[in-house]
Protein 1
Amino acid sequence: MVAFAAIPLAAQPVTYLMYDFEDGSVGGDNNSFTPEQETEIRVLNDSTDPVSPLDGNSLYILDSSIDGVDGVTSDTDDNVRYAGDFNGGTNVSALQVEFDFTRGPADANFERMAFSLCHAGFEPTSSSRRPFELRLNEDGSIDMRSGADVGSLNSDDDIGSFDVSVSNHIVMLFNSDDAAALDYDFSVGSGTIPANAFHVYINDSYAGEYEIGLDPTSGDIDFNAGIADLGSFAFYQDSNSGGSLIIDNMVFSEVGYESTSAVDEPVSYLFYDYENGDVGGDNNSFTPEQETNLIVLDDTTDPTSPLEGNSLYILDSSIDGVDGVTSDTDDNVRY
């Protein structure tokens, strides 16, 4: 039996967190991840109510505890949080965040669900701790609060929209270094992210450049004073109007990670690199003719392999009229 290994064109960037919720757990296999208010956070599949509108299982983040609705008061209005560290408590400088998403079932009382990042060990649910706020609104609009005015009611920037009835995809590329710019060029797009900034792509379209940070005189954390500022995340609802969001295929990684959501992996029908010395691999229905004329070369054979690692030498030295070979014994090689 032959084991084949793919030959990567380039090393895949490090992945810090990856959840597809297929195991039915809200936290995937990262046991250090403990979301608050788990009763408001449910994994959906094809038999739940609602059913998962995304491919396979998905995560339903719901805040239906709304001040003034169904007897809820300000004392009992507990906003939902889906939050945690993504790199074991260590902050990173450059970060790629992406996920599939859509809105949950419509509700006239709902307004939005928000997303942000923060230092490891903190939750960005307080306006004094979040360097930006992405708002995925009930009506399908998307707003961004960023920069020194991230906590201001007047700082919303309408950056795009999403279809509330189908799967959407967002990619955010962060550079929290306080001095150096960050270049990127892969399937998502290409560009240069200045220091303390990030780029956003919504459904494969560039949605703009935004600032990381808030006014250090009013915030608990100065995001513009260090090289690595990002170590935790949160999906949350911090208003009195509720909200819902369904997410899937959530990935936190180094910049340049190619997800299956962003790029479909081509199907491989046959792959031989001959590193095991077998001319035919593990496809048992494949039987080359005249295997004696098919030779796997390496660095000890004669001739040695002129290609990287092992290679296959296809040789036909049985020639009519040469070395006593006749038309009856001239058997042409087949691979």
Protein 2
Amino acid sequence: MKKDFSGDLSGLKPRERFQLSVKALARPDVAFYKQLVRSCPPEEIVEYLDLLKGASDCAIHATLAIHMVFAQWEMINALVLQPLDLDSRHVEYFYTKFRKHPELSADNRRVVEDFYESLSKRSAGDDDDSSSPRLSTNALALFLPHLFYVHSYGVEGVYVSEEETFESGLVDSVLCMIACYHLDIARAFIAESLSIIWPAFGSVCRSGMGLEPDIVMKAFGSPAAVSLIEEFSYELEELDVESNINQAWESSLRETWQSYNR
């Protein structure tokens, strides 16, 4: 494992030893971590261990909150996304292109929600004609203008069906829009939930500990929490959450950190 320091470990200051220890635990490099612990001078051991405890406690508090979001994501996958049995081509398109073009999202949501609203009215009996041909006609009326626009004007990132016929290509494109809608909504919900805790945790890690939050989480958090943050890193960056930190969470975590560093 690559180490961040080479030299006399006994000469490290407590804060430097703490930072190297967290990075070692995050890699993980248990052997180097043990060297750091054993080489700590007796008169500095309490301060050093307090720094580790403070970081661990902050990470545990954040992990508990992230686990609640992880449970929500698992539920959404089990009850919503998996039953939809989304086409793998549409899922790949969403992750590789659709979500990188926010301008597609608003129109896509509008069209799909209008479609679902028309289905809801028909199910409630608000529409006298609920025949299959009428349903298909209404679906085309909602989706065709959008598809015509994005293809005619060469909107960047638009889905291009590989189906051979116009009809099958149209159905494929509509199903792709619906798949992107559900993935977009589901992931935006989880990212919004994570944006309450993760930026606050990041603020305390950077300003208080001098470490990146993902390093601290890898050192002291759970694999589930680490994997969820990694999976939603793109959405968290796009939300620009660093400029809108939840003050309650930030204050709570900072108080926890400072309680070990008086």
